[in-house]
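In this supplementary section we document a worked example of the pipeline. Step one takes a protein sequence of length 242 as its only input; no multiple sequence alignment statistics are reported here. Step two produces a three-dimensional model, which step three serialises into structure tokens for compact storage. The input and output of this example are shown verbatim.
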Amino acid sequence: MPNLDVTSRGPLETALADTLAEAIGRERRHDPVLPGTGGPAGNAALTAWTAIVLLVVSFAEGLTLFDVHGLMSWHVALGALLIPPALLKTASTGWRMVRYYVGSPPYRTAGPPPLLLRLLGPLVVVSTLGLLASGVVLILLGPDTSHHSVVSVLGLGFDWSGLHKAFFAVWFGVMTLHVLGRILPALRITRTSAADGTPVPGGWARALLLVAVVASAAALAVALVHADGSWARLQPVFGDDG
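The serialised model returned by step three reads:
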């Protein structure tokens, strides 16, 4: 039987092959390095570092699900820690997407991610922001008001608690696929040089931005843990001496 070359692949097979090739490091997009912020290479580095932070905190947050009531304050605090870096990653990837589609030459040279990851991206963003936003609403409303129905789908009513769980189910599925496709490239991008060994400028600016995001995340975690709601008063993490 003759070997099938690339030209004989169907669209789905090609999309899967491209995604797998980038996920395992067999292929890598070339991100041009520009002065100042680093251009596409700097954007990729910022996105990668933010993704690593999100992955670590998300893993810790997942551990609280084994005893979510007993670890409610930890659940609230870690969930709050996710919000600023999630917004930063959304902004950095959104900036890259906009620059690509408006025809910026460096971003056009870098090219888009594989088709399947492009299709998965909007689901990642919507499910992540929906999960975090519904969690904040739950904290502020408290356990009683959170059980009031807010939306109906196919005749089934969802309260804020149910909506939060639905967002989590979608988020977990799409995020699992997203991490499998992006974790190895992200770890590689966190190096201080581009694929061709060119140093990527703007490292201090990216580091300071990440420090500011982490600081704002910690402040938000404290605020939400001590928010006016009985969810946040369960076993407070940060202490409440009076």
